[in-house]
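Example 284, ligand S-adenosylmethionine.
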Amino acid sequence: MPGKIGTETEINRILKSNKLSAKKKFGQNFLKDESILSKIRDISECDKDTLVIEIGPGLGGLTELLCEKAGFVLAYEIDNDLIEILNNNLSRFNNYEIINKDILTVDVNKDLDKYNYNKIYLVANLPYYITTPIITKLLTEVERIKRYVVLLQKEVAHRLAGKPSTKDYGAITLAIEYRGSAKVMLEVNRNAFIPAPNVDSSVLRIDIYDERKYYPKDEKLFFELIRLAFTQRRKTLLNNLGDKYPKEFIAKMLEDNNYKPSIRGEELSIDDYIKLSDYIVDKR
Ligand code: SAM
C-alpha cells in the first residue's frame, strides 16, 4: 500500500523532488493532516454511485481518498506543473480525470455529460482567493451538483451559513439558502496546511433541496433586490434601494408590507425578499 500523500513528509518530499514550492498566486495551501482529509471525505458521504468534482487537487492528498470511496473523481487543476505529479501520485487508480483548466472558465456541464452519474457532489479544499466566484458559478450554472463540501476561510464559511441579523449574513448566504441548506461541519486550524495561511478554516456542507423551495415571481429581480440591499451594510434598506428606485415608492412598499422605515437588508429573510420583489412585480 503506497504512503498517503497528505502528510508533511510526503508533501515536502514531492515538492522538493520536483523542485517546486507552493504557489501563492494559485492559493496553494496543501493539507498535511490525514485525519482532516478523511473527515472531509466522510462528511461528503460519497460512495461508488457518486461522481465527485474536485477543484484544485494540488498534489492529490484529498483526491486519493476520494478515488478510494467515490465512483469517479473529476478534478480541475489550473497549475500545469502539478498534472504529471498528480497522474504519478494517483497511478493506482483508474476512476479519475484531471482537467488542466481554470475552473472559472470551463463548461462543467459539458464535462459531466461524458459520465453517467446521477449523484454529483463537489468536494474541495478551495483556493481562497476565488472561493465566492467558484461557489456562485457552480450554484448558478451546474444544477446537477446535489451537495457541496468545501474547505474555506472560517469567516467566509460562517458568512455563507449565516442567519438573518448576524454579522455573518450576506447576499451570498441568501443565494445559497435559495438552493439548499448550509452548515459548518468542522473547524480546521491553520497549522493543518503547508504553508500555513494567516487564517483558520472551516468545512461547509451545502445540501441542495430535492425540490425547489422558493418561487419568486421574477427570479432576476429577486436577486437584484438582494444585491442592492447589501451594497452598503450599514445603510437602511430604504437608502440602499433608493439608489435605484424612487424613494417614495420604496417607503410605500415598506409601509404596505409592515416593515419599519429604518429596517436594514440584513434583518430580512429570504421570504421577506420574495415578498418585496413580488410586490415590485405587481406594481410594475
Ligand atoms: N487539494 C489540495 C489539498 O487539499 O492539499 C490543494 C488545495 S489548494 C488550497 C488549492 C488548489 O487549487 C491548488 O492546487 C491550486 O493550484 C488550485 N487552483 C487555484 N486556482 C484554480 C482555478 N482557477 N482552477 C482550478 N484550480 C485552481
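Summary: Residues 26-31, 55-58, 61-62, 76-79, 102-104, 125, 127, 130 surround S-adenosylmethionine (CB under 6 Å).
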